[in-house]
Amino acid sequence: MKYSLAYINHMIFSGDNGRVLGYDNAHNFHHRHYFGEISEVDDFVSYQDLVDRFEKEIREFIK
Q1: Which long-range contacts (CB under 8 A, 24 or more apart) does 30-35 make?
Q2: Is the pLDDT of residue 63 over 80?
Q3: What are the pLDDT digits (tens) for 8-61?
Q4: DSSP the chain
Q5: CA dihedral in degrees (52, 55, 58, 63; nearest 10)?
Q6: HSE of 47, CA atoms in CB hemisphere, 13 A
Q7: What's the CA gap between 52 and 28, in Å, rounded?
């Protein structure tokens, strides 16, 4: 299953089409986008776990 989660805000970050934070597996591995940097998600458990992590992380930006 392919997935993509993204928080986009051009006022915070203009690179990567405004994607401040995101998770996806578009390149056949689970990875995280953060201000234009990409890192592998080594501890992937499940999609729901990743959604929970994403929601927790975006709270930093949407207060």
Answers
A1: 33/6
A2: no
A3: 999 999 999 999 999 999 989 999 999 999 999 999 999 999 999 999 999 998
A4: ---EEEEE-TTT--SGGGEEEEEE-TTSS-EEEETTEEEE-TT---HHHHHHHHHHHHTTT--
A5: -130
A6: 7
A7: 21
Per the structure block, which two tokens stand in for 31? 């990875």
Q: What single letter denotes the amino acid at residue 12?
A: I
What is the reported pLDDT for 61?
87
Residues in the chain: 63
